[in-house]
Amino acid sequence: MFKKIFKSMSREHSENAENELTQDELVNNTETTDQQAEPTEGIPTAEGLSEVEQLGEDLAKEKDKFLRLFAEFDNYKKRTSKERMDLFKTANQEVLQALLPVMDDFDRALIQISKSEDAALVTGVELIYNKLKDTLVSKGLEQVDIKAGDAFNADFAEAITQIPAPTPELKGKIVDVLEKGYKLGDKIIRFPKVVLGN
């Protein structure tokens, strides 16, 4: 009987010892975990900076990258907006250039028709000419303002030939305009063709 009691007591004692060991292990594990979870605020890293300083530097670098990217995107938006506006301004350039010979024909026709005695014919052609001219002007077409007696500037006119100047004042200047020039906005789409006096 003593043996049975002794065995049961020794079993309880060994179970208690195991439980105690398990509880000790739990306490040790918890302490280790707490120590690992503690912030390493004052502990220097390999570069000699604390973790907070390192994070601050990383944040500053990322902020700088973001600002640069934002500036690049803003420049891209401005550039594409300017290109789009330029495209809108000159989108109809080919059509306008194709209509310039028609304008020249109208100019020549008006000179010849004005010699006619038929006033209704002259008025009718002038109406059509003015309507075409107003339509082209509304699309941005402008005539290059150049006339006989003006100083020659190769940026705004194209010299076809030179002739002896009829008067000394016209020497090196424009004697005659053979073909009108036109511009679309600030861009000259056809240079006026002129004769120079030498």
From TrEMBL:
One of its GO terms (cellular component) is cytoplasm. One of its GO terms (molecular function) is unfolded protein binding. One of its GO terms (biological process) is protein folding. It is found in: Cytoplasm. Keywords: Chaperone, Cytoplasm, Stress response. Residues 25-38 have a biased composition (Polar residues). Residues 1-48 are annotated as: Disordered. Its main location: cytoplasm. CDD domains: GrpE. Pfam families: GrpE. Homodimer. Participates actively in the response to hyperosmotic and heat shock by preventing the aggregation of stress-denatured proteins, in association with DnaK and GrpE. It is the nucleotide exchange factor for DnaK and may function as a thermosensor. Unfolded proteins bind initially to DnaJ; upon interaction with the DnaJ-bound protein, DnaK hydrolyzes its bound ATP, resulting in the formation of a stable complex. GrpE releases ADP from DnaK; ATP binding to DnaK triggers the release of the substrate protein, thus completing the reaction cycle. Belongs to the GrpE family. HAMAP family: GrpE. This is Protein GrpE. It comes from Flavobacterium subsaxonicum WB 4.1-42 = DSM 21790. The gene is grpE.
